[in-house]
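call fold(seq) -> tokens
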Amino acid sequence: MTAETSQTLDRGLRVLKLLADTDHGLTVTELSNKLGVNRTVVYRLLATLEQHSLVRRDIGGRARVGLGVLQLGRQVHPLVREAALPALRSLAEDVGATAHLTLVDGTDALAVAVVEPTWTDYHVAYRAGFRHPLDRGAAGRAILAARAGRPDDPGYALTHGELEAGASGAAAPLIGVTGIEGSVGVVMLCDSVPDRVGPRVVDAAREVSDALR
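ret:
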């Protein structure tokens, strides 16, 4: 800790991170051991976090992440969308297809930003807020491939007709962005994605990843 930082805030944030990393919650004693502080300090931290709905304790006394975290999480999408828009605009104009940023939302892939090309006669309509299972569509498949750490992948996923008849998609995952699983992709009306599009999508995903770090 330095003179410019708050020890109490640091401990509170560490509590949230520890609780986020477990599905079954942690007791005061377990938190005390992991943080290296006495139980009284942990009780105070939990009481403060509970007041803000960031932590809840079940009947057995185990602490878990509270629903207040969801409210904070909802504010992340606008920030991520803003950071991604320059790369998405460039991608859409370059390949003449609708570009999108997709993030994981539970077991679904959720489009949080969409940019359509300005110069094409027609393109696929795709809206922010559109969701689909992670195992369908290029956006979700790219995320799952990154999650599995597949070394032999070309760095992007290609699909045809999985979400919309006659439409093909290409997507590459965001890499190295802490706390965010997502992908950047395009969707176009064609039987197969042109060869140059896959690598271009990888470049765009890298740009977005850099902007979010």
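Strands lie at 55-57, 63-65, 98-105, 108-115, 131-133, 157-160, 167-173, 182-189.
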